[in-house]
Design brief:
Helix content: 40-55%
Number of helices: 16
Largest sheet: 7 strands, parallel
Shape: globular
Number of strands: 13
Strand content: 15-25%
Structural class: alpha/beta
Distance between the termini: 13 Å
């Protein structure tokens, strides 16, 4: 069988879960069947160095001169034109568009060239679609729905993500499948064994890794820390926030206002977060919504106990209804504080869920398992096109 030349498209290789997942695809895709190509909107992000050497990489902003004036829809039309041109130039056989803005562009571009393609959703956006789409969200939503429905197959990363696709875009259930995010466990273990952070061993260390954005719900974790430190008097707790984002200044002010500077560290973007995860006593996910949070999988693979919000969607599925970690109500700092306190006081629980979560990830979410699932869908749509 001739190799299929497959184009993966995503906005950039910034420090998020979707970007890390694309790196997993590129790294583990079977080279005897596929020849991967990567198309970015912007050539930027900390994961650029992790793109495999055999992957051709191109970016829209390097290929196209942007107009001086950004009239409504001008950039989008240029993106569609260049995407279509790139498909023809590179003789692409298949397309895998990851995240909604890339699905939006790919859906329009592929109409003329009639290439088989997968649309990949990475988040359940039932509550936040307008925020993610930005300006002209009504028009974009309509076009996005048409794109998802036009794709040969649609991939969701969790049950909740799949349900969101039905609710928001009326996607055909018969062509919508779940391929969960994955973890390269061997790589995680290698990276986690690197130099550990210089933390006080007498302190209880909590880690949250993720962009400093509204979605991640940092303010509720900070409010929980206020209750734990100032109301319950548990001064030995330390929270380490790994990541950058537009809310950093607001969150720093909140920490200052609540007099938590001695208990909360803004560590910034950490290229290798795994030693921090491995060294942590607890990982907290305070998100308002997710698709299937890769960082939660990675924390489980590092053997750190979990407290996570029962948000739509992902954590309940990953933690098997609380079997492998505690689930709390989103946007509820009091419940979050109680769960953290209980975890701090129960070392036997922390030890047991660390073990069970790590085994669960190895069995169900290892990269070679889930990337094979993706390959199967790619081959099916390629065969359907003759």
């Amino acid at each position: 069988m001739n190799k299929k030349r497959i184009l993966f498209s995503i906005g950039s290789l910034g420090g998020g879960g979707a970007e890390r997942q694309v790196i997993q695809y590129l790294t583990h895709l079977d080279r005897s069947q596929f020849e991967p190509v990567l198309y970015l909107t912007k050539r930027e992000g900390p994961f650029l160095s992790e793109v495999p050497d055999d992957v051709l990489l191109a970016s829209f902003e390097e290929r196209v001169t942007l107009p001086r004036w950004n009239f409504p829809g001008a950039i989008y039309r240029l993106q569609v034109q260049d995407f279509r041109k790139f498909l023809i130039e590179q003789q692409i056989d298949l397309v895998c568009a990851v995240t909604i803005m890339n699905v939006l562009v790919a859906g329009e571009a592929i109409k003329a060239v009639k290439k088989p393609w997968l649309a990949v959703s990475m988040a359940d956006l039932r509550n936040e679609l307008k925020r993610e789409l930005g300006r002209f969200s009504t028009i974009k939503h309509h076009k996005l729905s048409l794109a998802f429905r036009a794709a040969d197959r649609v991939i969701a990363v969790s049950t909740g993500d799949r349900e969101g696709l039905f609710a928001c875009h009326k996607v055909d259930p018969e062509k919508t499948f779940i391929v969960p995010n994955s973890v390269d466990i061997e790589r995680v273990e290698t990276l986690a064994s690197e130099l550990s952070p210089a933390w006080d061993s007498h302190q209880f260390h909590i880690v949250l890794a993720g962009r400093l954005t509204h979605q991640k719900g940092h303010r509720y974790l900070i409010e929980a820390m206020e209750q734990i430190v100032h109301q319950q008097g548990m001064k030995q707790v330390q929270l380490h926030l790994l990541g950058q984002g537009e809310l950093e200044s607001d969150l720093r002010k909140l920490v200052s206002d609540r007099k938590l500077e001695d208990h909360i560290e803004f560590a910034g973007f950490i290229e290798n977060p795994f030693p921090y995860l491995k060294a942590a006593d607890l990982f907290c996910l305070s998100s308002l919504y997710e698709g299937m949070p890769l960082i939660l999988l990675e924390a489980m693979a590092c053997g750190v106990p979990i407290v996570a919000t029962d948000c739509p969607s992902g954590p309940r599925e990953l933690l098997e209804d609380g079997k492998h970690g505690k689930l709390v109500t989103p946007e509820n700092s009091g419940e979050l504080a109680s769960a953290i306190t209980e975890a701090m006081q129960n070392s036997a629980w922390r030890k047991e869920v660390s073990r069970s979560a790590k085994e669960h990830v190895a069995e169900k979410y290892e990269s070679n398992v889930t990337v094979r699932q993706l390959e199967n869908h790619l081959l099916k749509i390629a065969q359907s096109q003759g």
